Amino acid sequence: MIDQSAARILHPLEVRIILAFDEGEIIDSQRVKQVLGFREGQEQQAFSWLLAKGVLEEAERRTEVFYELTPLGQEWHEKGIPARRIFSLLKDRGPMSLPEIAQTLGFDQKTVGSAFGSLSKEAVCAIDEARRARLAKNEFPASLSEIESLLALAASSGGSVSEKALSDSQRALMGQIAKKRGAQDSPFRITDRVRVLYRVTPIAKEYRKAISTLGMTGEELGAITPEMLEKGTWKKGHFRPYNVQIPPARVIPGRRNAYVEFLEGVKDKLVSLGFVEFDGNLVETEFWNSDALFMPQFHSARDIHDVYYIEEPTHAKFIEEPYLSNVAAAHENGGNTGSRGWQYQFDRDFTRRLILRSQGTVLSARQLPKAEVPGKYFGIVRCFRYDRVDATHLSDFYQTEGIVLGRNVNLKTLLGFLEMFAVEVAGAKEVKYVPGYFPFTEPSIEVHIKHPVLGWFELGGSGIFRPEVSSSLGVEVPVLAWGIGIDRMALMALGLNDLRDLFCSDLESVRMRRSQYKIQ
Amino acid sequence: MPKIEVNEEFFFQLAGQSWSNYEDLEQDLTIAKAELDEWDRIPSDAGERMIKIELNDTNRPDLWTTAGLARQLRIYRTRNIPSYPFFASKGKSIDAAYRVVVEKSVREVRPWIACFVAKGKPISDALLKDMIQTQEKLAWNYGRKRKGVSIGIYRTGLIEWPVRYFGVEPDSVSFVPLQETRSMTLSQILKEHPKGVEYGSILEGKTIHPLLTDSKGSVLSYPPIINSADIGAVQVDDSEVFIEVTGTDYPSVALSASIMACDFYDIGFEIANVRVDYEYDSPFGSSVIFPYYFQNKVTLSLIEANRLLGDSIDLKKAQDALARMGLGAYCSDGLTLHVTPPEYRNDFLHPVDVAEDIMIGLGIENFAPERPSDFTIGRLTPIEVFSRKAKDIMIGLGYQEMIYNYLGSGIDYAEKMQIPVGQLVKIANPMTENYEYVRNSPIPGLLQTESVSAKASYPHRTFEVGKVAIKDPEENYGVVTRQHIGFLISHAQADYNEIASHVATLMYFLGKNYTVRESADPRFVPGRQVEVFLEKESVGVFGEIHPAVLEAFDVMMPCAVAELDLDSLLIG
Predict the structure, then answer these.
(1) String of b and e for A104-133 (b: at least 16 CB within 10 Å)?
(2) Do A508 and B453 touch (CB under 8 A)?
(3) Does A209 lie in the same domain as A184?
(4) Which residue among A161, A198, A272, A425 is least enclosed by CB atoms within 10 Å?
């Protein structure tokens, strides 16, 4: 049995067909259009829905010949056939030569020739002594009017006419002017069309019962139109309910990249904690990348296989003073920093070597000479490492780094900041600190957190800049330096487990990606 | 970061403590900045089990050995600072039964040597392996792959004293090196022996090479390359060994010898001193008794330490904390700590290094985190704020934001784009040609997306805001970093007009009046491309991507692209 909920969401076109035809009746496109006045195409929509519901079944397919208006036929219909236009022209202006006619009406010679031929054949036109065409009769020949009525018939029934709709004489005339192939010079193209006949099944009866119980007429209002609102016709009608269970069509919106959004969330969080953002060059010198951070030039981590060197130019023209001299002295013997230094000959040539920055701490170092006290600075910046690219290593990636300057900052405030990052940025429930080692900080601390989803992991490294670093760059107050690793959190937030996917090229994946986690 | 493997039984015995689970061990290792590298506790016999440990402090090579790491854990627990009576120092001479003579000829190539003899106990299999590991870690990580420090261990029974350390021409001497059965000249060793091939570069360009022989001329070793196959091949059950360290950096050489001597002493060996007589002057004098204590006292004011640590630690607490780290600290005025570095450490460059040891000695858990009190105003960079504004407009126009790597291949960045590769910043030491250039435009990334996304439903509208590196010989670095926006449309009707409309919309809402001039950029179709100007400054380009470029990227859909310099737009 068909229940009312199924009937309720029938489309008005379906309702009207169900109400108009009885079980067993054979219907087709033409019949439905005739009886119900559907617009072209509406009946086909209704047929496909009703076939799916079992209200209709296919009874038979017939092939029929149709004559379609070609663009030329359409033009003839709109402007008149060439013979008619020549007739009217001569009637208005009197005798003219054939080339004059062609020029005035914009016809080619062939068109003028054949149209004039057909008029002469009916003795409507003749050539006078001056070799001009003139009208011989004042009446347009009926045989040519027939062509015009065929054009009108086709135009009025949607641009084509069935062979069956024509009289014998019309059919004969059509045989002369229509072509199957190469029809661009003819007003009609001959095509074969399949006509499908449908039989109304007994299911229609069940629907009809439900429809009448519901009081549906098929005249229910569909889409609300501006016209409807203007005229107020909606007031008298009933709105057709839509099937709300149909999945909506997909829309592709303009969107932020989920990874960038995550990074910006971290930036916003750090700004909310009072940090000023910094930024800098992708290409840096060994000086700022490592020397200024008191990493000895002979250090094993400064091997050729740890940073990318620029091929050309190889060296910066200069390093800013007094920082170069200060840093060189800090390395050699401590300079004025209270250190004994690394006790080696600082290489002032090597320090100008250009590289791709390998750590965000470069920017912290560069910030020191211009930093305010008190001051807090951070950056989320692209860094480059000499690493084989795989699921856990990238050749370029983001690092999140920052510094805090203040007369009163110390180990305990450093721990306070780390706790703040752990809770605010990473949503950690538990935090653990252990001694760490970085060449540029002393003391150095690693912070491990218990993340609600990822469990225990190392969130970052930090410390207080060694005086060899801060003092050489003109800062005489303690500087807390920190770096946090947010990539694991980013992967988790985006539901990924391969770092390479953060920089994904595939559009569909990027379009569908969404963040399951946001920095609060 | 060095990683070592320690025999569990041996390690626990030296530490004077057993850990029933590795979680506790890992926790205790934090005071040495060490962590477990592997958690599996197999096989079941502790004598067979090897614990893998990673050491994070590159300034404390004393922790990279089984005995040294165990020592730190032991002292931290017991506060017993061990004494090593065999050290000579500036004011303390000791009679040495053994002697090494260093000749002038070696001065230019590898001038320094430190050494000692360990005896009185048969060397076990586990100890032999551990010795080799210590030798390798010190020479590789601390000694910069043997350049600064290399170590040899020898069977004293075969040595006729005194030992000679001198320089020779590499073709003038031959001996049988380890892992060989034939006699080879030094030159041959460099060419044919695996160790010669590996470390030969250290001696590159030197006409005189270092050599260590005994008084009869039997070769001990060819530092820093290889030992001899007889004197230099220590075996299990040998009970007396000669250990020497050579190198170019004297403090590192002396410290490496000190570390090994303390280790042997902790394991139960007697240490016998060796006198080194130089034919030239050395920072420790021309005649030095090794092991030699050369470190200087470090002075730290308690006020400074408390300022750094944010605490009010009293003298007694500070001394106790330092004792747990193995540091003796003497104080006469109640304020200034005079710290004596232990024999095996030389990592106190600055008083702050002592302050950190106070922190570790007290335990980080005893420092309560404090909320910072300084008020500062947070701010994004102007370019970030401006970029976000541009991004919002692009999203309103229906674009999907993308993000790409900044390194790529010359093929993608130049060849496919029909531009000269010389415009790009090139890496001199690329790992692979896939990451050999720094990008100068976001467009190749956007086209890469098109080349892999033909199945994604059209239209495609993508954009990226990011950095590019542009060569500029006027600049100090020869390169400038700029923030660019690139955006691309791709669908069957994508054309100049559509991208031009989007540029116009973006510029309108960014508040920029621009003009365009027809350009001749090979990346775009001639006659359907322009350069964008703010006043007279060129700030970008847009147009229809040339089909030759599309073909190179294997893209079968028309694309139009714009690229604008946001740094210029921000200021302009």
Answers:
(1) ebebeeebbeebbebbeebebbeeeeeebb
(2) yes
(3) no
(4) A272
Whether residue A27 lies inside any domain: the answer is yes
Give DSSP secondary structure letters for A301-363: GGSTTTSPBBSSS-B-S---TTHHHHHHHHHHT-TTSS-----S---TTGGGBEEE---THHH
Residues 239-278 of A with CB under 8 A from B: 250, 252-257, 259-260, 264, 267, 270-278
Helix (H/G/I), strand (E/B), else coil: A104: helix
Give the nearest chain B residue to A311 (CA atoms).
B428
Enumerate the residues of chain B whose CB falls inside 8 A of the CB of residue A395: 405, 407, 431, 435
Token pair listed for A386: 């000499």
Alpha-carbon span A142 to A266, nearest angstrom:
85
Same-domain pairing of A329 and A470: yes
Site of tokens 């030197």: B206
Does A311 sit within 8 Å of B427, measured CB to CB?
Answer: yes
Q: Which residues of A touch B467 (CB under 8 A)?
A: 282, 382
Nearest to A431 by CA among A457, A400, A403: A457
CATH of the domain at A464: 3.30.930.10
Same domain, A272 and A312: yes
Q: Are B371 and A417 in contact (CB under 8 A)?
A: no
Strand pairing category for B400-401 and B336-340: unpaired
Length of chain A: 520
- Give yes or no for a contact between B484 and B516, defined as CB atoms under 8 angstroms apart: no
Model ipTM value: 0.92
**A409: in domain:** yes
DSSP A240: P
Residue A296 tokens, joined: 């000895």
DSSP B341-407: --TT----SSHHHHHHHHHHHH-GGGS-----------B--HHHHHHHHHHHHHHHTTPEE----SE
A309:B372 CB<8 A: no
Name the residue in chain A with its Cα closest to that of B454.
A507
CATH 3.30.56.10 matches B3-78: yes
- How close does chain A come to B276, measured CA to CA in Å? 23
- Into which CATH architecture does domain B88-293 fall? 3-Layer(bba) Sandwich (3.50)
Residues B365-420 pLDDT 10s: 999 999 988 999 999 999 999 999 999 999 999 999 999 999 999 999 999 999 99
Q: pTM of the entire structure?
A: 0.83
Dist. CA A223–CA A244, nearest whole Å: 15
> If you count them, how many residues does chain B have?
572
Same domain, A449 and A493: yes
As a whole number of angstroms, the distance between CA B425 and CA B437 comes to 6
Return the beta strands (E) in B92-202 as ranges.
98-102, 112-119, 149-155, 163-168, 174-175, 184-185
A497/chain B closest Cα distance in angstroms: 17
> Collapsing DSSP states into helix, strand and coil, what is residue A459?
strand
Distance (Å, whole) CA B165 – CA B266: 29
Q: Domain B298-366 is of which CATH architecture?
A: 2-Layer Sandwich (3.30)
Closest by Cα among A334, A319, A330, A331 to A287: A319
Is residue B295 within 8 Å of B345, Cβ to Cβ? yes
- What residue has token string 């008794």? B289
Tell me which chain B residues have a C-beta less than 8 angstroms from the C-beta of A476: none
SS3 letters across B531-551: EEEECCEEEEEEEEECHHHHH
Q: Are B450 and B555 in contact (CB under 8 A)?
A: yes
Tell whether A61 is within 8 A of chain B (Cβ).
Answer: no
For B99-153, write each residue's pLDDT tens digit: 999 999 999 999 999 999 999 999 998 899 999 999 999 998 888 889 899 999 9
Taking the C-alpha atoms of residue B137 and residue B556, their distance in angstroms, rounded to an integer, is: 57
